[in-house]
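Can anyone check this?
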Amino acid sequence: MEKFLDRAEAGKLLANKLRAYTKRKNVWVVALPRGGVPVAYEIAQALSLPLDVLVVKKLGVPGYEEVAFGAIALGEIVFNREVIENFNLSKEVMDEIIFQKTKLLKENEKKYRGERAFPSLKNKTIILVDDGVATGATMKVAIHVLKKYDPEKIVVAVPISEIQTAEEIKQSVDEFICILSPALFSSVGEGYQHFPQTSDEEVRTLLRG
């Protein structure tokens, strides 16, 4: 399978596919941290657009944290009713997890953004970026939450996506830009030669421009 050298190269290649948005007013590049930030930074730089982050926290089932019963972003909670019913989760258990994850989300938002508020998205075009999507759970929550802020258009731009997930996301946004969509694909890292963890410090540095 063809691979990107790293997230920066992937971002530059995506920017080439997004040239129509160069220096456009009311267009924001919004990254899903942490891995989406180096990709989004290259897009924002190449197209002379503002960059921000949308922190999403998945709500994991106790003992099965990789299974999410929901997710939270910008104060909005999205539930997966099927998972809640399958695991027979009580309101008390869910409330405690939501409390802890909300606290962590606010800490991360302050860490990345400081005291700066999330921008108004009403009537804006949002280019939503991550370093790739496998199951697409985080991306789908981000799309759901952003739609509540009444943007004019949502464009999802990712270097790599599992092919079925790509089809699902296409149905929920105005435009979907993806370079690689392999049929056999289990993790985003498979699309990169170099795929180190993105640090909080790197996120802060890139957001400062």
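Reply from J.R.: I decoded it. The chain has a mean pLDDT of 94.
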